Amino acid sequence: MSDGYNVAVVGATGAVGTKLIEMLEQTNLPLKNVKLLASQRSAGRKLLFKGAGIFVEELTADSFDDVDIAFFSAGGSTSQKFASEAVNRGVVVIDNTSKFRMDKDTPLVVPEVNKEALKQHQGIIANPNCSTIQMMVALKPIKELAGIDRIIASTYQAVSGAGARAVEEVKQQSREILDGELTENLTTEILPVASDKKHYPLAFNALAQIDEFAEEDYTKEEWKMVNETKKIMEDSQIKVSATCVRVPVITSHSESIYIETIEQTSVDQIRDSLEKAPGIVVEDDPSQQVYPQALNSVGKKETFVGRIRQDLDIEDGYHLWVVSDNLLKGAAWNSVQIAETLHEMDLVRV
Amino acid sequence: MSDGYNVAVVGATGAVGTKLIEMLEQTNLPLKNVKLLASQRSAGRKLLFKGAGIFVEELTADSFDDVDIAFFSAGGSTSQKFASEAVNRGVVVIDNTSKFRMDKDTPLVVPEVNKEALKQHQGIIANPNCSTIQMMVALKPIKELAGIDRIIASTYQAVSGAGARAVEEVKQQSREILDGELTENLTTEILPVASDKKHYPLAFNALAQIDEFAEEDYTKEEWKMVNETKKIMEDSQIKVSATCVRVPVITSHSESIYIETIEQTSVDQIRDSLEKAPGIVVEDDPSQQVYPQALNSVGKKETFVGRIRQDLDIEDGYHLWVVSDNLLKGAAWNSVQIAETLHEMDLVRV
């Protein structure tokens, strides 16, 4: 590349696609051209990029002919169908779906945590699941400090992770409840999982199901946190369990995380390691009621960590409250950050 | 008592007081007279009991002259001031505040779990904290089955636990956000803790603070779950840690609970023990997307348990999702159930 990269956003009109465009407006990555791709239904719409209108084009294999880097965020089946077409045309694909994440040959990358894995890429790099990314950012410094033997996570996940239509649904349900509508009459078409059999209201509720149920009665979302953690941390021995819960928050996931370290450390050493780590803001001052909040982290790229406490009984046990914008660090920003890192490492080539 | 008890509700106009009246309408406890007491501000209001109007009277020490059982739910300072006045007049006090819970001479009772402790009462019986009660109901059968070595709880607590004004505040904030108001302009006067220095919006947010911060950077709510569990289970050795979080749910607390048993057991044995236990409804069928939900448990007296899973790494580790109406089993129903149990055990005497 001499005068910048040609980049494409696949799924440009979606919840994450919109944020990808915002992050590309802010990136230091040298850009030559930005191509916006979507399904036929959205083609022809005009979106703004740095103030200039760009028409959304219909996604076809030929869309990738003059592209260097493509960000995929249009669902697993689109990635399945078009990612290899793009790679065959010399494009580096940064995929935000779960399609390739666990493939042996696909690096699964959080730049603050395991950017070295990018060196092995063969055209596709997978962006991890949103709930995994922020946990990895928060736990990497602690792993380096004292090792991590086990993780137990309970999540408080925002509805925007389920897409723009789910956000509209929970807003509609909220209005209905505030207007006195009965629970059984609420609009329920999408949540908790659009593709699943039953739908439940999320407004003023908490749903202990994100994605479909899978092995051992864990949901796929819970398995993502387990398997992706082991892959990103390159640690097949680390113990991970999760309970993933959707709450009526529009944007930003919160996580109650319990860890046990391998070596002895302290709250002060953990806080110090987090304060020095990239991509983290420590918000932890109980005397001033300072702790991370979903509403406060919307639109920010960092991962916020607070409520850092030693377990009351286990010497090597610690509790953390970890919050981040699920559409930014959990998706669009991490993807663009992968592109920036590929550029820095001179790896934008298939 | 020959033809029924004279009962009094202290704090009759509050969120829990209102539910106490409902539960007294449904109780099998023989009632002769129901007296409704509140502060001067609420005195004179007329509330319905089984269709008949009862005037709310101003609370004074003399209010208790002809009372057998008094339910206190008007804050710790009212209990501090009037509970002993009531006991001195021969009244059995069932107190819903945290005032006497950890007093050595005060039984702290969840009838399904430790009703034998009622035998030691000296006039005051404490109703445990809402988040503790439902956890105790769910864990008692497992403790009997296999013993419990440790508990880690992350809660998803409803706003009605913070009172009727907090409910109005979160509804108001929700309307403001749905109308496009900016976060910094939201009405914030009460939550997360009315008596604390700073107030934050809860609508479309999650606040990792319930009650004030205390020792070891745990909140008082978290300490309640720790200390009350040890007292109710009569087990000073049991390991308990908690992260208590308020979520924008009006009524019913949800809890992600991890336990480690002392003896080996299985998910099937745990499920079986829960299905046979009093006060529990097991809702746990992932194939049909069946799991407890806050919205579904509103107005019900039971504790709902689902998402029962073995930990993926620890043989004796299990995860549960426990939901119950915080105003009923978490407060009013447990209080009335204590009164029923006192009656059955012939303990309505000071």
Automatic annotation (TrEMBL), chains A, B:
GO terms for biological process: 'de novo' L-methionine biosynthetic process; diaminopimelate biosynthetic process; isoleucine biosynthetic process; lysine biosynthetic process via diaminopimelate; threonine biosynthetic process. Pathway: Amino-acid biosynthesis; L-methionine biosynthesis via de novo pathway; L-homoserine from L-aspartate: step 2/3; Amino-acid biosynthesis; L-threonine biosynthesis; L-threonine from L-aspartate: step 2/5; Amino-acid biosynthesis; L-lysine biosynthesis via DAP pathway; (S)-tetrahydrodipicolinate from L-aspartate: step 2/4. It is an enzyme of class 1 (oxidoreductase). Phosphate binds at residue 101. Gene3D superfamilies: Dihydrodipicolinate Reductase, domain 2 (3.30.360.10), NAD(P)-binding Rossmann-like Domain (3.40.50.720). Its EC number is 1.2.1.11. Residues 6-121 form the Semialdehyde dehydrogenase NAD-binding domain. The keyword Amino-acid biosynthesis applies. The active site is at residues 130, 253. It catalyses: L-aspartate 4-semialdehyde + phosphate + NADP(+) = 4-phospho-L-aspartate + NADPH + H(+). SUPFAM superfamilies: Glyceraldehyde-3-phosphate dehydrogenase-like, C-terminal domain (SSF55347), NAD(P)-binding Rossmann-fold domains (SSF51735). HAMAP family: ASADH. Belongs to the aspartate-semialdehyde dehydrogenase family. This is Aspartate-semialdehyde dehydrogenase. It comes from Tetragenococcus osmophilus. The gene is asd.
